[in-house]
Amino acid sequence: LKIALFNDNRLGVVADGRVYDLTGFVPWDSHRPxxxxxxxxxxxxxxxxxxxxxxxxCPSHPLHxxxxxxxxxxxxxxxxAPVNYLNHQSEMNAQFNNAPFTxxxxxLFLKAPxxxxxxxxxxxxxxxxxRYDYEAELAFVIGKKAKNVPPEKxxxxxFGYFALMDxxxxxxxxxxxRKSFDTCxxxxxxxxxxxxxxxxxALQIRLWVNDELKQDANVRDTIxxxxxxxxxxxxxxxxxxxxxxxxxxxxxxxxxxxxxxxRIHVESIGEFSVxxxxxxxxx
Length: 283
Ligand code: MN
Description:
Elements: E1 2-6, E2 10-15, E3 18-21, H1 33-42, H2 44-54, E4 60-62, E5 68-69, E6 78-80, H3 86-96, H4 103-106, E7 109-111, E8 116-117, E9 122-125, E10 132-134, E11 136-142, E12 158-165, E13 168-169, H5 175-178, E14 185-193, E15 204-209, E16 212-218, H6 226-236, E17 244-246, E18 254-256, E19 261-266, E20 270-278
Parallel strand pairs: 6-17, 8-14, 9-20
Antiparallel strand pairs: 1-2, 1-5, 1-14, 2-3, 3-4, 6-7, 10-13, 10-18, 11-12, 11-17, 12-14, 15-16, 15-19, 19-20
The structure holds manganese (II) ion (MN).
C-alpha cells in the first residue's frame, strides 16, 4: 500500500489518483502523527487486509486536492549513508578532493530529525555565502525494533520506502552539522510498503532542478545496499519503529539557490518537489 499523511496529518492510503482517508477507520491521532504511525506499523499485518477490502467505503479526495505531509514526521533518528556510490566518490574528488573513503570506512552518520519537511514545502538555506547541494536518495522507515539483524533478514524490519532529498551545506564541518539545518530533509511523497517493492536494491532514482535532469542512477550501484545499511546500523545501535535510514546519493550532485524548484522521482514510489529560498528572507 501507499501510506500518506495529508492535510492536518490525517492518515490516508493512495490508490487510483485518490487519497482514501483512513483516519476514522484505523486508530489514529492527528495530533500525534509519529506515535500514531508507529502504532499503525505495529498493527499493519492485521490492518492491511481490512484496508484493502474496505478502502472504497472511506471518504476520499483527488490527490491534487490534498496537501501531502512528511510521511514520517518525527523519527527518533535519521541515519544516513555517506559516499555509498563510487561514481559519487569520483565526482566529489574531482570537484572538492574531499572523498578519500567510502561508506565501508565511514559507517553511517546522524541527521537531525528536526530537519524534515514534506512535499511542496520550502528548503531555507541558512546563509547566502555558502554552497548548498541537492542529493537524491532512496530512504526507508524501520517497522519493528531491530538489533544485530543479518542482511538476509533486514527486509523483515523495513516497513516501507520513500524518496528523500539530503540537502547539504558543502564545506569542512562534520556531516551531521552540514546536513541538519532546518528544512534540509524533504521526504515523500508517501511510504510504499515493503510488500509492494520486491527489490528495493534495483530502483531508479532521478532528480531535476527547474526541470533539468541532474541525477539518474540506480540503487543497484550502492556499496552498502538497503539490507547492508540496516544490518550494519543494527550492529551498533538498536533501531526503533519510526527510525529512518537513507541510502546515500549517486553521481550528479550540484548546487541549489533561491528560486530553484527541485523534483525527485524514485521508481515504484513516486515523486514530489520542493522550493528553495534563503532563510533570512523567510517571513
Ligand atoms: Mn546524502
